[in-house]
């Protein structure tokens, strides 16, 4: 009887994100733990997923829609505003929490070995759970004003969400790993989170950025968040407009044929970079923590 061959492996090594499939049960436990810990001792609990975006929407709508009168130039400005906010909130929550995910779980990481990617990926899934109630509110508001999307628009919205999830995961892996060695990485992420709402057409029309940037507009358009927000506007806001209003609105050219594939490639590139840096640094997480 031939002796079994034992393969020696380097302790702490793994296949990166590919290990998630074989550790799906652990991932579910981490997601459940994150949700319980986040709302422990909270009166409203998961209802904060509704309250916080609604409060954010009201502040922007009053300040920009009413005080600056942007609602006059943008029909159904409330739908336009909220459809961008829900997507940006998903990105900011994912990136902020995944940046802290390794440091916040230092006790668990120092005691046992498990794929380190589980922690930032768990924050993506938790943020997605918070994203769903916000989409429910968006759908309800859109239906009240006559929302009638096409199948292509719905598929495009799903694709836009996937692009943002990939981008947030890539940046989360990158900054989550670097934050173990340089804790001021959180300050860099905080600055990114402050800029992201204004760096995409969430509060204003994309044509304003085009007119202001001129020949440099392609850099603005190459931002995956810009493309994703524009697609969400096209899927949730544009179908609420009547014939006269749609004639007043200018849609971004080549949104699905050019810029969606470009944004997907950029997001995948960020994910590849984030995974590469994460794997290089993850070997010494336990010692550094």
UniProtKB/TrEMBL annotation:
Signal sequence region: none
Domain ABC transmembrane type-2: 44-281
Localization annotation: Cell inner membrane; Cell membrane
Membrane topology: Multi-pass membrane protein
Entry keywords, A to Z: Antibiotic resistance, Cell inner membrane, Cell membrane, Membrane, Transmembrane, Transmembrane helix, Transport
Keyword Hydrolase appears in the UniProt entry: no
Entry-linked InterPro entries: ABC2_TM (IPR013525), ABC2_TM_bact-type (IPR047817), ABC_2_transport (IPR000412)
Residues annotated as transmembrane: 54-70, 77-98, 118-147, 154-182, 188-206, 258-278
Pfam families (UniProt xref): ABC2_membrane (PF01061)
Principal cellular location given in the protein's record: membrane
Family: Belongs to the ABC-2 integral membrane protein family.
PANTHER family xref list: INNER MEMBRANE TRANSPORT PERMEASE, TRANSPORT PERMEASE PROTEIN
Record protein name field: Transport permease protein
Organism for this UniProt entry: Arthrobacter stackebrandtii
Lineage summary: Bacteria, Bacillati, Actinomycetota, Actinomycetes, Micrococcales
């Amino acid at each position: 009887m031939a002796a079994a061959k034992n393969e020696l492996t380097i302790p702490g090594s793994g296949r990166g994100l590919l290990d998630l499939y074989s550790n799906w049960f652990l991932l579910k436990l981490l997601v459940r733990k994150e949700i319980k810990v986040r709302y422990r001792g909270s009166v409203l609990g998961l209802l904060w997923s509704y309250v916080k975006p609604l409060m954010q929407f009201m502040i922007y709508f009053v300040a920009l829609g009413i005080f600056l009168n942007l609602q006059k130039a943008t029909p159904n400005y409330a739908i336009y505003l909220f459809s961008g906010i829900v997507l940006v909130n998903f990105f900011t929550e994912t990136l902020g929490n995944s940046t802290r995910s390794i440091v916040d779980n230092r006790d668990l990481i120092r005691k046992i070995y498990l794929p380190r990617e589980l922690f930032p990926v768990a924050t993506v899934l938790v943020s997605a759970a918070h994203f769903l109630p916000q989409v429910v509110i968006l759908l309800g508001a859109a239906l009240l004003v006559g929302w009638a999307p096409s199948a292509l628009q719905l598929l495009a919205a799903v694709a836009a969400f996937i692009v943002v999830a990939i981008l947030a995961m890539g940046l989360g892996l990158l900054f989550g790993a670097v934050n173990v060695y340089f804790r001021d990485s959180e300050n860099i992420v905080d600055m990114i989170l402050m800029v992201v709402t204004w760096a995409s057409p969430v509060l204003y029309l994309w044509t304003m950025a085009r007119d202001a940037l001129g020949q440099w507009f392609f850099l603005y358009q190459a931002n995956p968040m810009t493309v994703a927000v524009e697609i969400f506007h096209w899927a949730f806001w544009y179908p609420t407009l009547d014939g006269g209003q749609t004639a007043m609105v200018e849609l971004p050219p080549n949104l699905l044929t050019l810029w969606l594939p470009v944004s997907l490639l950029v997001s995948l590139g960020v994910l590849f970079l984030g995974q590469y840096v994460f794997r290089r640094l993850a070997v010494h997480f336990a010692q550094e923590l």
